[in-house]
Amino acid sequence: PFTVEDKLGVQLLQNSEDPPTSEVNLLNSQYDGDRARFAFSYSWWSAFNYKKKLKGDEMAVADDMKMMTQPMVYESVGQRIKGDLMAGNAVVMFAYGLSGSGKTFTVFGPDAIDSPDAWFKHSEPHQLWGILPNMAYELFRDKKEDWKISMKYFQNVVDIVRDLMSPQAKECHYKDGMKKDDDGFMDIGWCQSKVLHTWDDFRKEFMTANSRKAISPTQFNHQSTRGHCIMTLDVEKPADDDPSRKLRGRLYVCDLAGTEPAGDIFYANYKCEADDAGNKEYTCVGPHPDQSKTKELQDQGKKINLSLSEMAQFFMKMAEAVTKKTLKPGSTIPGCNSFFLCKYLKDTLLQAKTYLFCAIRPEVTYHKYTFATLGFAKNASVIKVQPKKATTAGSPAERKLMQELETLKAAMADMRKQNADLEARAGGGDPAAIAELQKKNEELKAKMAEAEAEAAG
Q: What's the domain range around 450?
């Protein structure tokens, strides 16, 4: 969004949808020529507040750019991400950019616990939902009895990992319990995993976990997340073409800390103003008088900067290997494991479908950050890897259970038909026979509930 009064700093053009091609051009910039133009698959304009804040002569340029809404963004890429997950792939969604640029909003939508528009406070689709809530809503809507969906959610702050699913927000050193699972994807064993049965389970668990995040007000964002937040969503389901074989897809949603240099950050005071419709606008009024608060944020920021720099180096090495055609399936990238972010994600990124969402600020004031973000995205955009599917044959016990479940379903359907036939007879049929059928019906219901619970884990 436009948050300060300034000239227009970017022009975003979606040149075609199939195949998707777009460009970002820097305006009113010290950069010129090819250095001011960046080509991507998608470039979305969503600076909704520009009419109030934009200064200079580019109002017509801003008006000509197509204003993208959250449903339009989901329509563009969300279904593809969902399809990759359901096919048993590891899928990584990266949200990268300056604090306050819209990273979290793109992926989640509003997520502040005190906001009435927070996505998890709405049980039905909402116009401000980001990619994840839209996708998860459809996922749980389509969920079958023999699917298992589970979730982890944690935050990396400096050298620790905070388990946001833990009631006590348990913290450990980031290296503790970090190891690869049976499919070769990195996991943190001590972080809690919860099985989710319904859409309401998911949004309620997320709302509770999200309230445990470490956040602080900086001049870039009144609720800046102080570290990298990662949520994993595991989906285990029978393969459509072979129910005896299970597909395990895993979605990594990585909402990274802001990319601003640590030395630029200060702990900020804000004023909040609400319009007639109740919409709130937060305006930074300057640094907090307690300088120790700023120092703490800057110390955190140094580690955040180093971890993001290491991730940028990793993407550069991947891009170089792809360009030279030396990146082979099962290979790795040496180094790049000094900080949590790369250590946790680098081997997964080498065998996952990765979607990178880079958010930029539209004002000229932020050009140096915009240029760095677009450079990172440009390096990452050339990377193409073959994803590894996580599949396994069902165990004999699991196959037997699934057969029993199918048998119970057939018996239940037959029982309903017998009930309907008896009730349709004149006089309601034999009361003793009806009572016996109703008893068997209740027994079958109980058996089915037990079988479904066991199948779901």
A: 396-455
